[in-house]
Write a structure and sequence with these properties.
By secondary structure, the chain is α+β, with helices and mostly antiparallel strands. Helices cover 24% and strands 25% of the residues. Helix 3 runs parallel beside helix 5 (172-184). The longest helix is centred in the middle third of the chain and has 19 residues, at 119-137. It is globular. It starts with a strand and ends with a strand. The protein binds one DNA strand of 15 nucleotides through loops.
DNA sequence: ATGGTGGGTCACCCA
């Protein structure tokens, strides 16, 4: 199975880019975040015509939204609400004769890394804490967790750990919480397991840079985690950074795992 | 310290 995760920043604007990606890289299942559309406008027919006929999606007007699009049959679909909100930040499917896949869009957390000054940061910390409790209570087996988690946990996950220590996405309170979620929640970080911890790895580059490739001030915000029982079956991991350079790009690029 | 760009919807929100 070839599985991808991609914060697409509007599925309707980039539907053709998604289909080209699915075809070019022979993807079985893709998990999308920031689809930014209500379910009635989700381009399900276009994806089905291209051969990806099995869908699970939860969207809302303008904001958030997650989807799982598959050419393998889906047995079951469900979602949870997190941090006492009903925003569309999680969806889960069970692939027929295959693993369960959780797709998350963790809140970005605003600009100020202080939960009292900035409620968005509190929401992000509460969301991660709730995920940690959830997976500690029911340890994952034959499960995969992917998504835009909006945290770059390691020094090598950002262009400069020193410059970003007070920047939301790489503050110690966030990186420590995410590492706890990985270890206590029963997950293996498949991307770091594959590449090791020395290499700089990024999946997101700001739209605001004059030249994203020249400055290369990236962060690894998009993750693929595998339950311990399933981790030995990972064959390949790839971050498709070239998708940052296409016409009308998302600010995130796809990450692929092959099992 | 500041503002830089992009997406959605329709005067701003959010990233």
């Amino acid at each position: 199975m070839r599985l991808a995760t991609w914060n697409i920043n509007s599925i309707r604007l980039r539907i053709q880019l998604v289909i080209n990606f699915l075809q070019k890289h022979d993807i079985d299942v893709i998990c999308l975040q920031e689809t930014k559309t209500e379910d009635k406008f989700f381009p399900a027919a276009t994806l089905a015509e291209a051969g990806w006929r099995h869908h699970a999606f939860r969207g809302e007007k303008s904001y958030n939204g997650v989807a799982i699009v598959s050419r393998l049959p889906i047995d079951q679909t469900y979602h949870e609400n997190w941090a006492e909100k009903t925003d569309c930040r999680h969806i889960c499917v069970q692939i027929e004769n295959g693993p369960s896949i959780h797709n998350f869009y963790v809140p970005a957390g605003g600009d100020v890394p202080d939960r009292y000054e900035n409620p968005k940061f509190g929401h992000k910390l509460d969301f991660i804490a709730e995920m940690t409790r959830y997976f500690m209570d029911q340890k994952p087996h034959n499960e995969i967790l992917v998504g835009d988690l909006n945290i770059a946990p390691l020094a090598e996950d950002v262009w400069s750990s020193k410059h970003l220590l007070k920047v939301v996405s790489h503050t110690p309170v966030e990186t420590e919480a995410l590492k706890r979620l990985i270890s206590n929640g029963g997950w293996v970080d498949a991307v770091r397991e594959h590449f090791g911890t020395d290499e700089k790895l990024y999946s997101w580059w700001s739209y605001r840079a004059r030249d994203w490739a020249a400055s290369n001030r990236g962060r690894r915000l998009d993750h693929i985690w595998i339950s311990h029982d399933l981790a030995p079956s990972v064959k390949e991991v790839d971050i498709k950074a070239d998708y940052r350079g296409v016409e009308k790009p998302s600010d995130h690029v796809p990450v692929i795992v092959e099992l």
